[in-house]
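Structure first, sequence second, as always.
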C-alpha cells in the first residue's frame, strides 16, 4: 500500500530487521517504516542538510550557503524557492529551528 509518511533509504535495514523479528542494532540513523512520521532528515554533505515536514522541504548549505524552501503541495517539482517569500517567513523560521533541534539530537554538526 501507499503511505503519506516520510522515509529514507536508511530506514530499509531497520525495517527488514523488524519484519524478520530480529533486534534492530543500536546506533542506526534509520527507523523501521512502522515508526515513520511526517518528517524526514538527511545529511547530504558536510554542511548540507535537508528537512522535510509534511508538504514543506527545507535545505541549507551551511553558514555561507543559501537556504531553500519549497512547498511540495503547490510545487512538487521544486521549481520555486520560497525562502525569500515574506509570506513564508514563519515556515522558514520554524524549519530552521526544527533543523537545529534535529542536529542537536543526532549530534550532527552544521
Amino acid at each position: 500500500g501507499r503511505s503519506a509518511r516520510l522515509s529514507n533509504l536508511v530506514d530499509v535495514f531497520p525495517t527488514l530487521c523488524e519484519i524478520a523479528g530480529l533486534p534492530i542494532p543500536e546506533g542506526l540513523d534509520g527507523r523501521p517504516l512502522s515508526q515513520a512520521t511526517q518528517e524526514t532528515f538527511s545529511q547530504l554533505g558536510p554542511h548540507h542538510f535537508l528537512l522535510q515536514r509534511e508538504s514543506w522541504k527545507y535545505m541549507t548549505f551551511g553558514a555561507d550557503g543559501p537556504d531553500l524552501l519549497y512547498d511540495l503541495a503547490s510545487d512538487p517539482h521544486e521549481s520555486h524557492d520560497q525562502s525569500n517569500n515574506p509570506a513564508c517567513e514563519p515556515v522558514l523560521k520554524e524549519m530552521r529551528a526544527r533543523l537545529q533541534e534535529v542536529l542537536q539530537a543526532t549530534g550532527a554538526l552544521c
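Margin note: The chain has two helices and four strands.
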